Amino acid sequence: MAENGAKATVTLTVDGVEVTVPSGTRVIEAAEHVGVVVPRYCYHPGIPTRPAQCRMCLVEVEGRPKLEPSCTLQAADDMVVNTASDTARTARQSVIEFLLVNHPLDCPICDAAGQCMLQDYAYVTNQLESRVDEPKRIMGRDRISDDILYFADRCVICTRCVRFMRDVAEDDSLIVAQRGDKAYIDTFPGRELDNPFQGNIVDVCPVGALVHEDFVFKARSWDMDAAASVCPGCPTGCNVTIDTKENQIVRVKPRHNAAVNSWWMCDYGRKHLVMTNRGVRAELPLIRAGDDRGGDGGGELRPVDWATALDWVAEKIDALGAPGGSAVVSPDASNENLFYVRTLLDRLGVGDADFRVPQGETAELPTVPTLKLRADRAANAIGAGFFGGRRVDGPPNGSAGGALVVLDDELEGAGDDFGASADFFLYLGTRLPGAARNADAVLPIATFAEMDGTFTNFEGRVQRFHQALRPPGLARPGWMVLSRVLARLGDGEAVDDVRGAFERMAAQAPALAGLTWDGIGLKGAPAAGAAAEAAGVAGSAGAGA
Question: Which residues pair with 401 in a beta bridge?
Fold first, then answer.
């Protein structure tokens, strides 16, 4: 029993199956507990209001005279619900026929084709012909923000977009204008749609009425491959799905995780992720043919195969011993990459590794406390702290003697002679900035979108991301490359999959003790509490206010 005397749970029957659910559960949600998905348009689990706008979720309840919308109907003890009775099916079929009266027959060119709920239900209810002979209403296309197009002809007035802006983003800039068959979505007179989370209205649209302009005519659902990933735009670590076509990111959508981002993500992260793999990339291992950096030919970097590069690097490191030196790492590097760099630095006698975190404006989604575009513009500053990282604000520090190791930092602000005085300069990166051309060896590595791995978000939650793209040229995951260098030095074995890399990391890193790759799953898991706090997870600058 609840504290006020009300029952904590109720038991009802849905399509002949008895189910017990928490009190206050709607019938449409109770049905999902027994594997029944009631058709819906206006209902969305992340939007609090339930307007029963579309009438698609009508169900039959024994003892009641009329069909009732399951999205507003609260489950009760001894309730017997039939979601697929003849009466409910007939009503649903009528709703679909009504919605198709003016809906354009543009499925072949619609960007929602293959992922359209109207298309799916029309097929299920066998709405293949129309009884209406009159011409369809023509309403055209409009731009409701700088990057979102609205196709009014396709709109079923489910009001998900309006309710997301009003009830989730607490921004009442969208309205339903006019009534009946003349109704359409528009901005409130005198207002503009300019919200850092407005892209979510495209995600919740059940048809092809709202589309990101940069996605129009680019791909169809059957063209794309999807990968579960994590947004690298800030330390929040929103769970996302990356859709790719022909090895290019064409769309990013939020993936539900109640503990992190609920159903949503910010527009900055969405655009940042699409641009992640653009630009010129480092594709081939490079080593310096001679001892002189920048000499007249003898000291130039030259491309080699991986075996040659790894043997050469291992030989140089072995000859160095433990000379000390310095290191610069990227706070966007995965936990696995940072761990293997830390292992190499320990062998070289290098202490803290510097990392810099770019800053930007913040933005909050008022109704989701954990979802915030944070000032830090880096995915894994907390992870960098776990592995001996030291946050700095100035230009990167190149070693004056000893070893210098750089992990995927762009070396912005570094002088032309950066690293020139180091005894050995190793650069591992996705690109090749000018200062990296002073390196003795350049090893090309994959971006996070091109490999499997983990990030640690601002709360200390370790989250998995999965490969969405093929890396260019000979680039490989950093943990794969470094495990082979260390194996040649007699430190562990070369690993070919992220599970092996994660297992070694979890076994040796106190902050990740007890975690397993399978145990993290697709929702993530918190790092060890005491170690995480010691690394500055709680209230640190790296958390990005």
Answer: none
